[in-house]
Predict the 3D structure of the following.
Amino acid sequence: MNRIIFKILIVLVIFLLPQCHPLKKTFRYEVDEVQYHIKAPVIRVGLIGLPQNIEITAEKGLKIINRQNGNLPAKRNANKVKIDLKNGKSELYFVQLGAFLKRENAENFTNQFSSLYPFQMKIYQSSQFYQVRIGPFKNKADALEVFKYSIKNGLKDAWIVNEVVSSEEEGNSLFIDDEELRLEKNSDIFLIPFHQAELLKVNESPYRGIIEIKNGESGITVINILNIEDYLKGVVPLEMNPEQFNELEALKAQAVSARTFAIRRLKFHEEKDYDICSTVKCQVYKGALFEHPLSNQAVKETENEILTWNNEPINALYTGSCGGYTEDVENIFGGESVRYLRGTFCFHQNGDRVSPIEWNEEKTKEEVIKILRRQFSIEDIIDIYPLRRGVSGRIVEMRILTSKDYLDLRGFLIKEMLGLKDLPQEILKTMNQNNEVERFIFKGRGKGHGVGFCQEGAYTMAKMKRKYKEILLHYYKDIDILNLNEKVK
Ligand SMILES: [Zn+2]
């Protein structure tokens, strides 16, 4: 075995290390003159929503390492790699019937209700719950039939979820310095800048760390592999704009929440090619382009700090503006209640308990019918009214009374199914001469789902000279703030 192959093998062994200690895994790459090292903890970010044609460059060139068989050389240098992601992403739908903190409860539920369905129920482990699901369905209409059937049968926690999956067609081309090569199934290549200090560019946008292009079972995935603190420098300014929220303590609180969210993903590694996605579904990340001195400082000053409960990283949900009071998590996302995600009063501008951010959305009855008909077959709507409100005043259960039947919606589905901005707190109506509803006025406060850490409130608290730890302890009850260096579980 010659020296180079031997060294490549060392690298591959490191890449292939099991994920049992994700917080300690380090990427070290050394072949010939190239030495590249990513400090632990390392995170793999799935870059979702890239344009169809991507071009990856590095000013002083890059190394390409091919891990799998195929027609690509095992290793070569290049100035530019282009890839045509012509087979876009598609969505698959599942009906989630329940979400449980313990596997045992999910199994009991499955045993109890499986006879209701001709489909097999499966238990999926997410970062928070054991989810009992049916599916996948290729289109939403099929999922909706099962959803409606479930609601009718008293499974009130039923939910429709979608997952983004790459299409499975083959034939993607990869261009290395304009030489066309076929990117075969199961190919897995790593793009590494020639110099440690240099940043790769994806369509002219800088990215720290390295890029992996994987053509796996579920299609092509582009993954950015980097140190988690570097990742956070890209995330914090996109989740909380430092120009708009120019208070260091608020940004520090955001940095700790975002780090916790990411570490939890690492710890409860789902069976995917990456740890976390780059969209709003996880945390928005677009590389190093939006880094800002104030948010970088917030990341640096809270380095390695995460939030834990019962020695586990918490599910650090956060929201744009709660509207004056945050909500209990189960009221919005279903599942069991979570001790640290309880609704609490919130400080907004000038320390007011009531947010000035109020919104209302007016829709005629016909408009509401049209929106609902995308998902349900309904004739006419007689009325829409709340069945239950959560602690924040948000309507968390709502009944749509139709001419033949009724439809009950819960939590976040209210917003989704009615196509509203957010969850409303009031429904006003105007009537016609025959005393029939003519239009609905949905009124609400705040922005986002309203669960967990409130960015608007954190900003106000920081203005009131509160420190980031106080801010975090206000929104997440009874949690601990730990340093990863001191305690890695
Ligand atoms: Zn708030």
In short: Residues 1-22, 351-355 have pLDDT under 50 and may be disordered.
